[in-house]
């Protein structure tokens, strides 16, 4: 099992535009910072084995022991008139497919940006914009042991190893992720989220669950065709509301 995401380990698994160029640093603050404002071409990829200031959503940290996980950012140049938040679902779908391919377990998407395996969060997506470009950051918990995972996460975390009992080749998984991201992103560019809707809907983790979104209790109904979440609220859940973004907590 290789122990690094260095260029020579990952190059054999790069099959398309995404991953070219491939910027690797054994340690960096955040792979997002290697691409934001860089002016690099679409598909440019930054990866590392350790982040000292990994960024999560809502200003949180993203922490992973050195050499345990996939820490990657990809540069996208979406058309200007599009709804960029949809790209988190695009990346989540790619990560779900890649994780499913590696584990044989069904991976689901917890709106808007988490990937779940056996009800545990194994991957998170962070999309950041700069000058009309979007840098999509993907963190996948791969080979962490149970004790390596954060204790205080609102969504219970897992790694591919804790959920399958087996270590996973990170370089091969990264190659698969980049290949799938390119295919799904090209589909989104061409036909929007509507083209991916069947796949996203089929993996919707929250559908029918009792949730709390931004402090309000609700039942998640569905991810809509524009990427927003429809929920039922109020006494007896008679009212419908559409959520643009936010952190969703679910009952176990
Ligand atoms: C989340 O679930 O809060 C999103 C986590 C995103 C983490 C990835 S790891 C690679 C990239 N670099 C970062 O600093 N963050 C993203």
Short description:
The protein is of the alpha+beta class. It contains five helices and twelve strands. The relative contact order is 0.15.
What does this structure look like?
Helix content is 26%, strand content 27%. The protein has helices spanning 7-10, 31-35, 86-103, 160-164, 170-202; strands spanning 22-25, 45-48, 69-76, 107-110, 114-117, 120-130, 133-141, 210-213, 216-223, 229-233, 239-243, 248-250. α3 (86-103) crosses α5 (170-202). The chain binds biotin. Biotin binds next to α2, β3, β6 and β7. Residues 30-32, 51, 54-57, 60, 62, 71-73, 113-114, 124-126, 137-139 line the site of biotin (BTN).
Poorly predicted runs are: none
Helical residues, percent: 25-40%
How large, in whole angstroms, is the Cα Rg? Answer: 17 Å
Helix run count: 5
Query: Which outline best applies?
Result: globular
Cα(first) to Cα(last) distance is 34 Å
Largest sheet: 7 strands, mixed
Query: Strand fraction band?
Result: 25-35%
* Strand segment tally: 12
The average pLDDT score comes to: 94
Order of helices and strands: HEHEEHEEEEHHEEEEE
SSE layout and pairing:
Elements: H1 7-10, E1 22-25, H2 31-35, E2 45-48, E3 69-76, H3 86-103, E4 107-110, E5 114-117, E6 120-130, E7 133-141, H4 160-164, H5 170-202, E8 210-213, E9 216-223, E10 229-233, E11 239-243, E12 248-250
Parallel strand pairs: 1-2
Antiparallel strand pairs: 2-3, 3-7, 4-5, 5-6, 6-7, 8-9, 8-12, 9-10, 10-11
Helix pairs in contact: 3-5
């Amino acid at each position: 099992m290789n122990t690094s995401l260095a260029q020579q380990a990952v190059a054999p698994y790069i099959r398309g535009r995404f991953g070219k160029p491939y910027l690797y640093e054994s340690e960096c603050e955040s792979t997002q910072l290697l691409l934001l404002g860089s002016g690099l071409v679409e598909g440019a990829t930054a990866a590392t084995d350790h982040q000292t200031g990994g960024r999560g959503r809502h200003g949180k940290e993203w922490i992973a022991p050195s050499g345990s996980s996939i820490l990657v950012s990809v540069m996208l140049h979406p058309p200007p008139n599009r709804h960029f938040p949809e790209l988190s679902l695009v990346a989540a779908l790619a990560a779900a497919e890649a994780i499913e391919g590696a584990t044989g377990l069904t991976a689901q998407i917890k709106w808007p940006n988490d990937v779940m395996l056996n009800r545990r969060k194994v991957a998170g997506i962070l999309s950041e914009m700069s000058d009309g470009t979007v840098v999509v950051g993907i963190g996948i918990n791969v080979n962490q042991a149970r004790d390596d995972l954060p204790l205080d996460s609102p969504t219970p975390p897992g790694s591919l190893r804790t959920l399958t009992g087996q270590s996973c080749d990170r370089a091969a998984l990264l190659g698969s992720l980049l290949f799938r991201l390119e295919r799904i992103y090209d589909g989104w560019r061409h036909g929007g989220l509507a083209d991916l809707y069947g796949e996203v809907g089929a993996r919707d983790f929250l559908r029918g669950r009792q949730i709390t979104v931004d402090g309000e209790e609700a039942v998640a109904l569905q991810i809509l065709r524009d990427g927003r979440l429809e929920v039922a609220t109020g006494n007896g859940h008679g009212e419908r509301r559409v959520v643009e973004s936010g952190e969703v907590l679910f009952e176990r």
